[in-house]
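Schema walk-through. Below, the input block comes first and the output block second. Nothing else is stored per chain. Lengths vary across the set, and this one has 212 residues.
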Amino acid sequence: MPTLWGALALASVLGGGVVAVAWNANAILALQAPALGPDGHGARVLVVEGWMDAGELEQAAAAIRRGRYERVVTTGGPIEPWYDAGAWRSNATRAAEYLRSRGVPPAELVALPAPSVATDRTYENALMVRDWAARSRGPLDALDVYTRGVHARRSRMLYQLAMGPRVEVGVLAADPSAFDAAHWWRSSEAAKNLLGESIAVLWTKCCFWPAP
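--- output ---
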């Protein structure tokens, strides 16, 4: 057994580690890691998760206007009729219409509405992207996923599972519009999102086994 001073030193080290992880939790989950691509010039396809709000979609539009992407794919499942003011029917269609209104050429946009599912929505959307790529393009070697903040790490994991090892999956994280994610401890909503995503990442790592 350690001495009293040894136990205090051990507790201090462990406590410092926990504080350091918590302090940097947003940066750990909200990855900014775009794909390099086979030629080192990055991915040519950007997947935009359509459930994001207008401010976050505006950040995606700004990334698209910088000119690297040749095709933009929007994803998302059905919108409840009560909230569907624009009669879009799906988050994928809503996001595509928003990006079109922000100057993204229609020829570059593909909306991929997903069916309604109770669980594993991100993975189901990733499967839609995989199937679209198989139908409409030559071999896809790299793509980037644009999503909200702390959802980024899990989105990347699930898209990599769906796309397989031959496709490099990068990720870009939008800054949430509703709170300051860098100071997550100041907002109950930010703390709830971060805690929920931390648990979801751990569950995906240990317990998510997709069907062949």
